[in-house]
Amino acid sequence: MLVTENSTVSSRPGRPRSEKTRLAILEAAADLMLEKGFYDTTIEAIANRAGVSKVTIYKWWPGRGAVAIDAYFHRFMQTTVFPDTGDVELDIRTQVLHLIETFRGRAGEVMAELLGYAQFDANLSEVLRERWLQPRRASSTAVLQRGIERGVIRSGASVSIILDEIYGAIYFRLMTRHLPLNGDFATELVHNVLSGVQTASV
Amino acid sequence: MLVTENSTVSSRPGRPRSEKTRLAILEAAADLMLEKGFYDTTIEAIANRAGVSKVTIYKWWPGRGAVAIDAYFHRFMQTTVFPDTGDVELDIRTQVLHLIETFRGRAGEVMAELLGYAQFDANLSEVLRERWLQPRRASSTAVLQRGIERGVIRSGASVSIILDEIYGAIYFRLMTRHLPLNGDFATELVHNVLSGVQTASV
DNA sequence: AACATTAATGTACGAAACGTTTACCAACTA
DNA sequence: TAGTTGGTAAACGTTTCGTACATTAATGTT
To answer: Rounded to two decimals, what is the model's pTM?
Structure first.
């Protein structure tokens, strides 16, 4: 018998894990991060808010970073599928504007804090790369690759460097806060970058 | 009587501040950050290594971030003056390669940690912007401005966005570590970005 | 029904670091 | 000499961490 991952049929003995408790922890962690920031979102604070024992959290997550990232994904991970219109600049701009929209308000600040804390937590760093940054790079990579195949983008251009120019600039503003992260910025950014790797001039 | 900042004539009463102690603290902090990383460089650890009382550190610095950034500057701040050859791409590339050279080895990792910790320390964030990022932006801004005046770069292009493309990409790789930060990357990066804002094609 | 197994709780604990206080001595100016 | 500032040593209360212990809860197996 093949069972789906969310089946209510638990094949193991013993008391099953409480889904209610799991969700309470994730919601509490997300709430706290948005309200007080990542720094004040301690394990104890999460346990109190969730009405859950601290030990329970430690049983399922190795530390603060792991709970935080799960909570962030739980709330902000919406697997949007972007259309392929054939216009490289339009498609990339759509993706970038969507990301910037996600980063509006506290959600952006919390992402900056997660990236910040990742400098001291190798596990969090890897999870962020694999489950947050990588999927978005994959979407954009597909668009750029199609552009190369259609001859719109220089075939010699390194896709990863193009992505670093675009996403690097965004996360740079997110973390240094020296200038705002808005639609005008994103539009000119994408236009500049793609102009630099196109085969033909406008 | 006008007195220079490093004058031995202290016009104030009381015991003068010990330069030896000040330097011992900065050296110890820099050593510890390079050896153990920022996370393990606690105030107590610095005090022990420097052979100094913990209270003395708290007297002159408000916290860990402040000592760390002073120590980092003390060791890595070399105010290099870059030449103006008239070739925009060459000049920018020179500056960028110099920065990347600075970030080789542990110095780069420590900068990543400082930027990371800055997400939780508003004061450190501001000091980094004003005393580390801004001076480098100023150097590059001058080059780009000259390029605009000479008609090599589109006059409508936003200098700050160009800078974000270049430096954003660099700090993005520094902090996410998904790809190496080397000379080849820097060379193509600078070429791509400037190609996107030049007036004439190659 | 009895048992094994796993989940969750409450309490308590030791270890670190934090940032501060207190009392004292050291070095300099007026 | 008096006044002022720098530095030290020791201790303190607090917070957070991560873990340990004993106990109760909920499920499968026999």
So the answer is: 0.93
